[in-house]
Every structure is written in C-alpha cells, then in structure tokens.
Design brief:
Structural class of chain B: mainly beta
Helix content of chain A: 10-25%
Distance between the termini of chain A: 93 Å
CATH architecture of the largest domain in chain B: Beta Barrel
Shape of chain A: globular
CATH superfamily of the largest domain in chain B: TonB-dependent receptor, beta-barrel domain
Number of domains of chain A: 1
Oligomer: heterodimer
Radius of gyration of chain B: 26 Å
Largest interface: A-B, 53 and 69 residues
Strand content of chain B: over 45%
Strand content of chain A: 35-45%
Distance between the termini of chain B: 22 Å
Number of strands of chain B: 44
Largest sheet of chain B: 22 strands, antiparallel, barrel
Shape of chain B: globular
Amino acid sequence: MKKSIVYFLLISTFIQITACKKQVSSTNESQNENELISTVRLNFIDTATNDTLQFTWQQMGGPGTAIAVDSVSLKPTISYLGYIEILDETKSPVFVVSDEIKVEANAHLFKYISSTTRLQVSNTDSDFHVPPIELGLHFLAQTNSDGNINGTLKVLLRHYTPESPKALSLENGTSDMDVIFPLKVE
Amino acid sequence: MAISTGIFILLFCCFSFRTNAQANQIIEIQIVDSLNLEPLSGATVSISKHRHFHISDAQGKVKIDSLPLGEITLHVSYIGYHHQDVKIHLPSTKILRVFLCSEIGHLHETIIAGATIGNNFSARSKTIMSAEEIQKHQGQNISDLLKNINGLTLMNAAGGIAKPVLRGMHGQRLMILNGNAAMEGQQWGDDHGPEIDPFQANGIEVIKGAASLEYGPAAMGGVIHILPAAYLKQEGIGAKINLQALSNNRQGAFSFQVEGRKGKEKFMAWRVQGSMRKAGDAHAPSYQISNTGFTENNQSAMLVFGGKKWTWESNLSRFATVQGIFIGSHLGNIDDLKKALQASKPLIILPFSYTIGKPYQTVEHVLFSTKFNYQLAKNKKLSLLYVQQDNRRQEFDADRIYNQALQGKPATDLEIQSFTGEQSYEQKFHEHWIFKLGAAELLQNNSVQGTQFIIPTFQSITLGAFALLKKEWLDANLSLGLRYDKRWLEVPNYKRFQNSYHYNTQMGGASAGLTYNKRLQKQLSASISLQSSWRPPAVNELYSYGLHYGVASFEIGSDKLVPERAFLLDINLRKAYQNISIEASAYLQQFNHFIYRSPMAEPILTIRGAFPAFQFMQHNARLMGLEVSFVYRQKRAWQWESKFNYLHAQNIDLNQPLIFMPANRMEHTLGYVFSENKLFKLPFIEMQSIWVAKQNRYVSGADFTIPPAAYVLLNINAGGSFQPFKNGQVWLFNLSVQNVLNQNYRDYMSKFRYFTNDPGINFIFSLQIPISKN
C-alpha cells in the first residue's frame, strides 16, 4: 500500500516537473507567420503621351485598420493600357503577390467594375486554359467625353478551386480581394 | 466487509423501489450499480435482527424467505460501493431494487428516488443515462448520446461535429467530465466538439446543484459526466466488440476492448480499448452536404490497483480526428455570403465521397489521469487526482495562400496543454453529517501558430478550494457548498501585423450553493437549489481578433471584460404513481455581466471587402426555463415517454432576446417491450416524434438570416438481445431510423443552417458482442 502512494507521488512529481520545463520554453515572444495583402497598385499608361499614372490602395495594419486610397483620376477620351500590382509590403523584401497570381492564372480572374459609363475597362491578357480565358493582370481602360464625373472603380479578384472551377463559370469561386477606388474623369 | 460497514451509511445515493411481483413473507431484491444499472453479483444482504446472510446471484438477485411480519432493516453491501440500510415493512408485495453507488466517485448530490427508475425520474440534481440507454442510442459522436437527456440540445456543424448545450449554456460555461478528468481543449469554438470516443461511454450523468461546486468556474452551467465502464468486479478476463453502421454518410465504426482482473481484495484490473470510425459526406434529403466526411481513431487504456482500503486508477487515452468542413460554408467575403444565403441550396454540390478536402480540421487529444483513493478510517476518505492533457487543433482553410513558403500550413494551429491537480478529503461525523474539503490546481499553456490569428498564446494558472457539507435525514437532505477560485492569465508579447501586445490579468471569485431535497409524501419529492457562481472571461472573449471564414464574419475580443456572475434558482418536483412518473423542473438564472457576441454597427474593412463584425460584450441577462417529463412504463408492454422543454433568454439591459439560444421543443416516444421469445430477449420497438419550434426570440439584423421554421422529425428504434450460440454470450443489437420521413429542415442551432439543410434519413445499426466474462 505505502509503496503505491510513494509510486503515485513519484510519478506525479516527475510529470509535473517535465511539464514545467515545457512551460518555460514557450514564454518567448510569438509572431504568426501570417500573410497580408497590404497594397493594390493600379498603373495606367496614357497611350497618347506614354505617361504613367499610379493609384494605390493600402492597408498596412491588417484587417480593420486605416486604409489609404488614392483617387483614380483620368482624363476624358483617352485609351489607357493598365496593369495591376498586388503586394505585401509588410514583408521585407516586399512580397509580390501578383507574380504568384500570374503562375496560378487558371485559378484567378480580375474584374474591374466602374460605376459610370464614362470609363470602360476590359481585360487584355488571358490564362493557360485551352481555349484561353481572360485573366486581368493587364487591362485596357477607355474614357469618353461626357463632362466631369465622380464615381468608383471596384477591383475584384475571384479565386477558383477544382470544386468550383473557372472553366465552368466565371460566376464560380470566391473573392480574394474586393477594393474600391474613388474615380474621377475630368 | 470492513470497508463497507460503517462508512458512509448515510450516503444512500440513489435507490428506488419497484413494484412488480407478489410475495408474502418472501422478499426479492435486485442489487444494481446506480450508474450503469448493471446487476451486482456477489453482494451481501443481511438482516441485523435475524442474522440472515445472503449473496446475490449473477442477475444481482437475492430471495429471502421465512421472514416475519413487521418492519425489518436490510443491510446491503458490496466491495467498492457505499452500502445501504433499507427499511421494509412486511408483508411486502414488491421486488426491491437497490441501487448501490460506487465509492470511486464524488460526494453524490442525490436522494431517494421515487418508485420507478429511468433517466427522467432520478434524483433532482443528477440525470442519468444508463449503459442500456446508451446502447439504444449510439450515434456518430458523444453528443448524439447526450441529446437524449431532457434539457440538453446540440449545436451541430454538419458531419461529425456537435456540441452539447445544456439549458442554453455551452462551451466555457459547461464542463464535460470524461471519467475523472475535466476535458480541456479549445472549448470556445462553436465547431469544436468534445474529444471523447462515444464507445467509451457506459453511463452519463448531469451534475447540477451544490455538488457542482466541486468543479470550478467552468461548471457554471452544470457538469456533463461521461462515465466509462467500471473495472471488473470479479476475477477474470473479458472482451467486447462494438460494430456500427450508419447509412446517411455511409459510416462504419468499430471498437474492440479487452479487460481483466486479478485478485479479489488486493487486485489489479486493466482494460485496453481501440476504435475506428470513417464517414463520407452527409446527405440532405435532396443533395450531398459536400466535404463533411470524417475519420476518427481512438485508443485508451486503464490500469487499476486496489487493496482493502485503497484504489489507484490510471487512464490514458488518445482521440484523433480529421474532419471535413462543409465546402459551401467557406466564403471569400460578404458578397459571396449574400449570394450563398439567397440560394436555396449550397452553391457547390459534389458527388458523394469519403475524401476529405479543404477546408478541414484535425484534432488530437491525449489525456492521462491518475487517481488515488484511500480510506483513512471507517469514516474518512482521501483522494488525489492528477490529470495531464494535450489538445492540438489544426484548421486548414480552403482559402488560398499566395506565399509559397506558407503554403500547406494550417490557418489555425493551436496546442493547449493542461495540468490539473485535485486533492480532496471526505469525512462523516455525528452520524448524519458529512463534509468534503478540496483543492484544485490548473496550469494551462496555449501555443499558437498558423497563418491566421484568432487567439494569442497564453499561460494561465487557476487555483481553487472548496468545502461541501451535507446533512441527511431519512426523508430529506441538505447540501451546502462554498468555493473560491483565482486565475492568473498571461499573454506574452506578441505581434499582430504591425503592433505588439502584452497582457497580464488576475481575477478571483467565490461561488456558493445550497441544495435541499425533501420527500413530501411516499411518492412525491421536491428539491430546491440556490447557487451563485462566477466565471472569468476566457481568452477568446478577451483577445480574439480575426476572420472566421466559416460564416464570413470578423470576431473581436474585448480586454475590458470583467468576470460574469450567475445566480441560479432551480426547483424540481417528482411524483410517481404506479407505472407513471412525472418530473418538472423550473429554473431562473440571473447573470450579471453576461458575456456574449454582439454585432457591431460598422463592418470591418479589409482588402477582401467589408465583413460583418462581432464584438464580445457584457450585459445583465436572465435565462428562465422549464423542463417537464412524463413516463409511463409497463413491464413487457407499452411504454410512453414525453419531454417538454422551454427556454426564455433575455438581455435585460438592452431589453431584447439573447440570440443563439436553443428553440423550445417537445418529444414523445411510444414503445412496446415484447415478452421473451425463442429468438430474442426483451425485444423492443419505439417510435419517437421530435417537434422543434421556430426560435421566435431573435433580434432582427443581428444575424444573417431569420431563424428557420419549426420542424417535426420522426424516428424509429428497435432492438433487443439474442444468444447466437448455445451457452454463449448474449449479443445486443439495435436498429434505428432517424428522420424516417426524410424531412427537409434546418435547425436554428446548426452552424451551417445559412447554407444547407440538415441531414435526411439515416439508418443506424449497432451490434455489441461480448466475447467472454468471468
């Protein structure tokens, strides 16, 4: 009997001691290896002048924190050649998400939705499907001439999975990105 | 004998009488285990006046004849059980069924039950499901068993995940005790079910009232105690096989256990058990609920040493599961959510498969417990408990990660280690009094990895001490309990995106309870319970911050939260009349600073778009409820059982309902137990209807959709036992059909009700094969 009590105490003490060891080792600062898309940059090349305009949407602090966004300010009756850059600027070096999207083109699609008819955007590049399906890392933006206007330009990134594939319907998938830029054509 | 005489005479936990035979100066007794109702053979019955001495047979039965008229006292005892003195007036026309309580356990908070048995007419603060009931209701997880208890409902998350909800309380407010050990995992998650192998359950009890103070702040809403089978009471070796098949998700399950015992007074008992389970996608009446398959893989071992005055029981178990998460629930943002909500069926429906794709979660829970009970003297008992557990949970999102270096990593990766110590001392004094003193220590260490942040890494220490006092009279008893707990919680420095955080808190609080049971007339008893308890806010309530793709919502903790306090009044009445028993419980639970998730006015803006956000808040709240049950039982004939359940939960400060509370419900079961025939022993068939009301108490705008409509389900259950081989063991079988009409429905408490109907018709077959015994 007494032996059993001794064994019991010995075993429990042993376990408690080993437990405490583990305890101490984990009190260091912890940091999650999270991925954050911090920045969306739209580049518009004026086909008449070859000037490049850059507009940025940026949220460096993660979800729920302050957003800094430029107004997309375009001139009327111009054709712009555009491309989009998506970055994680919280990492060093900066992680270029759009490069990964290019590799995974078959599972992605950008949609540029303008709130006004004064700006029409269409995708100019395509993925690796046969026949190819539009992708939207590169686009063509066309403004027309009906006076000054303020509106919005919504940029959506759709993400497709084998269960909900792009080839079946562009309505499939879920949203990986959904940002809104103020828009001015004047 | 020395153990059983004298000690805890007054603990006549749960015994009851049952009328069904005729005799004159002959009396028949059946002695059974109070929890699993298994007959105890080898128990002794003596009559003090007449020095008669009898031993119960294999069915636990004893027949004593040549008894004189008048009053006699029977003394019933059995090694390892609290003994009982039972007064009987002869002539008696009754078969006396005596329920003995195992000494390995706690200070039972129960009294003399009325005139019938059954899980609804047990003592007030304890609802019991017997081994027999468990065999009848085997489902795909432990919660499927629990839902048969009146007042208990489930929070489902399609596939194999279900959490028990008792009187509106769940997660951090409801303790789940697995044998000797309180389960410690990530209880905060709505889709985190209890990590317990359903095949291990041999009895289930719900502990409420003053006795629950033994268990600390997590027992605020009660304790669900899952009892594994007791170790063998006789020398020998035995084995048992359980087989199970479920049609809805084409599930198969298998469990095998071997157990043995060596020695009589000084003994060693052991058990080894393992089980496996595999399920594919669940099926709603008109489509597959894709990616809801799961696998489960469990092992457990038990080793008990015992002597004349002591027992030492150790358990080691492992529960591991891979659980698919319904594919239609993981959405990109609020626009996707709106689209899914508007659709009449899931946006993605795939053909049936056993394959578990993303999103899915893996959980592994390893539990070690060792408990030492020592009978210091006839009236003194000491027990020491040590529990160590490790819970690792990884959740993989369907969601895409662009950074190659992070690919394949789980979105959430949590590991919580818990170390519990518990010491208690129990003593009887002045004949009818008993007290118990105890101390408890809990050390927790949670580490967080993964690509997404939900809760931080933390360490906590909780220390508690309690004192329970009980006085017993012949027709009444009174329990008093006091407890104090203190918790230190440290969240070491961590970085969330750009900012650093660090927290250090300490919170303490006292709990007190009183329970009084009284037998008013022969077959009418009443009890009243008053209790005040507290609970410190949990880590997720304080510090969580992150997106839950499950329902596209953002959850934010609040570090301003203070502990919540509950005041409970619980009244219970039980009446038995011949074959009928009725039980009614009414309760009122008033909360100060009730912690809950409240929708925020402004959505959270992210690069994925806007998300509805919820923040933890606290307000005063009130929960009121009523539980009524009616049982009519005839031996080998008709049975009728009805249960009724009502809950009203109100946020008093805001004068609006508390949301996400179970809807009112009603259940009726009509059954028939046939006489024994050549093939089957005690075959039975029963038909059950379950009516669940629409939850009309909701706050419009606080949820994505309004609560689903009321529904009625019809179930059929049949079973019995048979002897396939001459002189062989008796096999138990059961066939049940759930949702017989293949009804389309969505339950308010189902996590995926926004996207899919609940599962349709399900045929469940289970078979229990004992291989040998003795």
